[in-house]
Amino acid sequence: MSTASLLVSSRDRTGIVAALSDLIFRQNGNIIDADQHSEKVNGMFFMRLVWDLEHYALDAAGTENALRQLAANFDNQMQWRLWYAPPPPRLAVLCSKTPHCLYDLLLREQMGELEGEIALIVSNHQSLRVAAAHFNKPFFYVPITAATRAAAEAEQLRLLREWRIDTVVLARYMQILSPRFIAEFPAEIINIHHSFLPAFIGADPYRQAKERGVKIIGATAHYVTTELDQGAIIEQDVTRVTHRDSVEDLTRKGRDLERQVLSRALRAHLQHRVLVYQNRTMVFS
Amino acid sequence: MSTASLLVSSRDRTGIVAALSDLIFRQNGNIIDADQHSEKVNGMFFMRLVWDLEHYALDAAGTENALRQLAANFDNQMQWRLWYAPPPPRLAVLCSKTPHCLYDLLLREQMGELEGEIALIVSNHQSLRVAAAHFNKPFFYVPITAATRAAAEAEQLRLLREWRIDTVVLARYMQILSPRFIAEFPAEIINIHHSFLPAFIGADPYRQAKERGVKIIGATAHYVTTELDQGAIIEQDVTRVTHRDSVEDLTRKGRDLERQVLSRALRAHLQHRVLVYQNRTMVFS
Amino acid sequence: MSTASLLVSSRDRTGIVAALSDLIFRQNGNIIDADQHSEKVNGMFFMRLVWDLEHYALDAAGTENALRQLAANFDNQMQWRLWYAPPPPRLAVLCSKTPHCLYDLLLREQMGELEGEIALIVSNHQSLRVAAAHFNKPFFYVPITAATRAAAEAEQLRLLREWRIDTVVLARYMQILSPRFIAEFPAEIINIHHSFLPAFIGADPYRQAKERGVKIIGATAHYVTTELDQGAIIEQDVTRVTHRDSVEDLTRKGRDLERQVLSRALRAHLQHRVLVYQNRTMVFS
Amino acid sequence: MSTASLLVSSRDRTGIVAALSDLIFRQNGNIIDADQHSEKVNGMFFMRLVWDLEHYALDAAGTENALRQLAANFDNQMQWRLWYAPPPPRLAVLCSKTPHCLYDLLLREQMGELEGEIALIVSNHQSLRVAAAHFNKPFFYVPITAATRAAAEAEQLRLLREWRIDTVVLARYMQILSPRFIAEFPAEIINIHHSFLPAFIGADPYRQAKERGVKIIGATAHYVTTELDQGAIIEQDVTRVTHRDSVEDLTRKGRDLERQVLSRALRAHLQHRVLVYQNRTMVFS
Fold first, then answer.
1. What count of Cα atoms within 13 Å lies in the side-chain half-sphere of residue B217?
2. Do C15 and D25 touch (CB under 8 A)?
């Protein structure tokens, strides 16, 4: 089934739901998903609409045009993003040496649950080349040292453009991206941080967790912004630990969290269910 | 804010969302919550709509009338339930001797989180009269024996009618209700069963759980139907147990589950967020 | 059954388990619980032993004496704490206006699951006097202002001494205790903080959580130390939230966490299952 | 570090803990883990002991002999199982076509977290041969039809013997084993069932779950016995689902549970932390 997805943010105004539904209906689109959220504290309105394109009369440009007219009727207070019969998003996975998240994503794609296509894998180490080969994926080795960082990033960006990448996944990629890199993929770079943010920002969060003596550890998938571990959170999960768990045990238990949290966040993102507003996400179900 | 809530089930047909939104919009209602669910396997469509009545032009009868016309336009395949500026639902709590669920509900009402009003408490024991008195609630003692069961139930029903009860909560009430009782409150009697249904139906589920050696126990809130523990499930939750936990420990841990699961189910029900279809619930968020 | 409980910390040395078990066995004590933990990273050994006193030959003083001799055999590297046929610990609950934690503790005591006795309730407000009265508990109103803080704390301490209090529970008590107060009850004051520590230290953690856009909120029970929210963590738990949850919703959902986390931590403490070492707890199961 | 592990079941008798600790201590063994559990309802005693063999004076046969003498002192009411400097257990993984559990186990072994060695993979389909090859594991294709079932099982058993297999893992292996097969590996065959047992025994549990309308689904790892899905449960876990989740969504979400529950159960088993008594497990931590 070919569908269109629409994410809308607006000052809350009477009639927006009706206007949007009517726009789609008059063009013979059958709405198959509608979910709305109003925030009383700031008077904002958010909506996700998905409709079947089979009998729908407008093309993408026509729909954008209709949305512009509709926005004008509401004083141009409305922002939106439209995915019209979108092809599967193309992903680049950036990784270092740790294999678990990369294998997890590759296997999920193979089992048909990824909602996107892993187009290429880029790493600053050679060790995961075999994993890429096993799943028949292009693998590019771009080594990074303090001296070559700028050139390496330029090469990464060149690859991402060449392969027409939509979304970048940092699958336990242990390098910090420059603001310039981040600016090329706004709200399209997803990182998995191995703590329950905002606890234990930065390096070695499992060691920090052990030292603080927490009884639960977590993992957090978030959009990458220029401030370390401060981007909008997409998904989190946790698991229990006890005093018996060493830092190595936390690391092992954490790997299970990382895989699941990253893949759930990515799935929501690739299904165009995530709307970012003021560094917070709405994840429509 | 005075609102109307609408729950709709229908054969899925192009234009229903638009027609419903348009109906509300044309009467100047501002939609503050819209959530929709389509089931591909059976071609059904479900929706919840909530709108602000402040500037809305129709009264309850007018809205019902408009909905009937709308349904006619869709071949009368649509069922709905409308709550128009509903007063807080009036609850009766039926209990026996165990206090934890009753106290929990009374305290939640006092803290303003219940979304309904506990109008009366009926018990086949005197022991919880003090709890009722502490929270200034009418308490009726209706003893039940095998010989007096029918008369006792008649007295209970008389009380529920006299106090104009909308919803009946079985707060660890250890008696089985007759089909006649149940028929008077369709989808309005909520029970808390102390297992993760459908595991451990019937008596003494914590003992059953201990004997089977499960590693997790649960609790289930469901609508009461004439088949024991077979009604539509509204909410469930679980907690971990180990071999160290005796049946008494399971019972203690389970009490925490029972309170929370019952209150969450009740809250969803009282907010008119639960739609029952073919003995399954949709719980809109 | 009358029992003794022993918590031991020591440099790890061959023969300690055998020496401790042998000490108890030779005096005809039947060990009913033995749990041990060794930390490789710091070479420490921790153990909990519980034994039946029915046929046990030594009294408390004799056991302390035997432990001192045993410790001498291991170069006095061993610390321990012994509870010999301990009476139920006597608790003071300090609270302000919020009722849910206080009711929860009182009801748990009534249902026989508290493992301690709530001896008195102290509050800086009058509003929970009715709850205390309902459960027949002494209630003392000790108002606190900036000007009277020192005198108020002196009065609180006088009450705690007069009522021979072992353990102080801060049941959403919104005041900070002075170092002097804390020093009188080392590792015997338990606070419930309404966040997943170390995230959201300090005031208004639910608002902080909403602003950061976390997908999970938590609660943490910890021993009170002079550094705010930095004491050893005894228990934590979490629950999911979504973008739909307002700060009020987080507060409501959090109350369920607070009750459970506080009561589980308190139960572990009162059963002498919590051993503190370097600001981290071992909670034996 | 070379260690010995001992699991003991016995009628509860004063002095057993001391006798066991003393046996190890007198031979210069340093106990590094001791965990005990007494069941009041049946008067049974269970214990796990792990000790360092570095300075320990007895060999395996000598230790068995000492345990026999000790048992005689306690009226021969004691059963035990000893692993003395055990080599990593050798595993066979039986699978069909579904890849996720097999990849998960292979990757965990590669990351060093398995606590055993996957010695061979046996399947009734060819499709997972590539996964085995990628991880350099022997793969045997043993097709099964109704007509060849007995011969196929004989071939499987021959392979398991030839490769000196200790433990058999059914990684979503969709065939039922004969009693004869099961009898060769008592408490050494672990299955992952894709439901929260005892709910939804047998075929297609996710469909059953959807039809019953549960709000939580689960997975269960258990020892295989001759009664379908009735063996002792080792580990379980659950995840939330909603009315929006189709059977396919439950299947997808369930795969994450299956991986984790199977691997956690297997880890506990391979670390000799699981004691079975009357079809229930004690899983020592």
1. 32
2. yes
Q: Which residues of chain C have pLDDT under 50?
A: none
Given C67, C85, C103, the domain boundary residue is: C85
Same domain for D196 and D253, yes or no, is: yes
Q: In this structure, are A30 and A75 located in the same domain?
A: yes
pLDDT score, position A18: 84
C214 vs A contacts (CB less than 8 Å): 197-198, 233, 236
- Tokens 């503050």 belong to B32
A123 and A77 inside one domain: no
Contact yes or no for A25 and B31 at CB 8 A: no
Query: Is D245 tagged catalytic?
Result: no
Q: Which of C215, D252, B48, C238 is nearest to A271 (CA)?
A: D252
Specify the pairing of strand C233-240 against strand C274-277: unpaired
Please check whether residues A116 and A228 belong to one and the same domain: yes
d(CA A34, CA D241): 19
- Give a three-class secondary structure readout of A72-102: HHCCCCEEEEEEECCCCCEEEEEECCCCHHH
Closest of D124, D217, D210 to residue D171, by C-alpha: D124
* pLDDT confidence of residue A250: 97
Q: Which of C268, C237, C271 is nearest to C254 (CA)?
A: C237
- Give per-residue pLDDT as tens, D37-81: 888 888 898 999 999 999 999 999 999 999 999 999 988 889 999
Closest of B88, B67, B82 to residue B5, by C-alpha = B82
- Chosen domain end from C52, C85, C118: C85
Tokens 């990458």 sit on residue = A224
* Structural domain total, chain A: 2
At B196, which CATH number? 3.40.50.170
Domain that holds residue C128: 90-283
Q: Which of D243, D276, D282, D285 best probes binding to B when mutated, by most B CB atoms within 10 angstroms?
A: D243
CA distance D81 to D95: 29
Of residues C89, C88, C118, C115, the one with CA closest to residue C103: C118
CA dihedral D251, D255, D261, D263 (to 10 degrees): 160
Number of residues that this document lists for chain B: 285
Contact A213 C246 (CB under 8 A): no
Task: Report the distance separating Cα B20 and Cα C220, nearest Å.
Answer: 46
What's the CA gap between C253 and C206, in Å, rounded?
10
Q: Which residues of D touch C (CB under 8 A)?
A: 12, 14-15, 17-19, 21-22, 24-26, 28-36, 38, 47, 55, 240, 285
Q: Using DSSP bridges, classify how beta strands B3-11 and A280-283 pair: parallel, antiparallel or unpaired.
A: unpaired
- pLDDT in the model for residue D104: 98
Q: Are residues B255 and B187 in the same domain?
A: yes
Please state at what angle helix A247-270 crosses helix A205-212, rounded to 10 degrees. Answer: 120
pTM of the complete model beyond 0.90: yes
* pLDDT tens sequence across C177-226: 999 999 999 999 999 999 999 999 988 999 999 999 999 999 999 999 99
Q: What is the domain-level CATH number for residue B9?
A: 3.30.70.260
Q: What is the DSSP letter of C114?
A: S
- ipTM for the predicted complex comes to 0.94
pLDDT along chain B (285 residues), means of 10: 94 84 90 87 91 95 96 89 96 97 98 96 98 98 94 97 98 93 96 95 93 97 93 97 96 97 98 96 95
Q: Which residue of A has its CA nearest to B20?
A: A18
Helices of type H across chain B: 16-26, 60-73, 100-110, 129-134, 149-162, 179-184, 205-212, 247-270
Measured between CB atoms, which of A216, A281, A282 is closest to C238? A216
Q: At CA B181, angle to CA B159 and CA B260, rounded to 5?
A: 85
**Which H helix or E strand runs over A16?**
helix A16-26
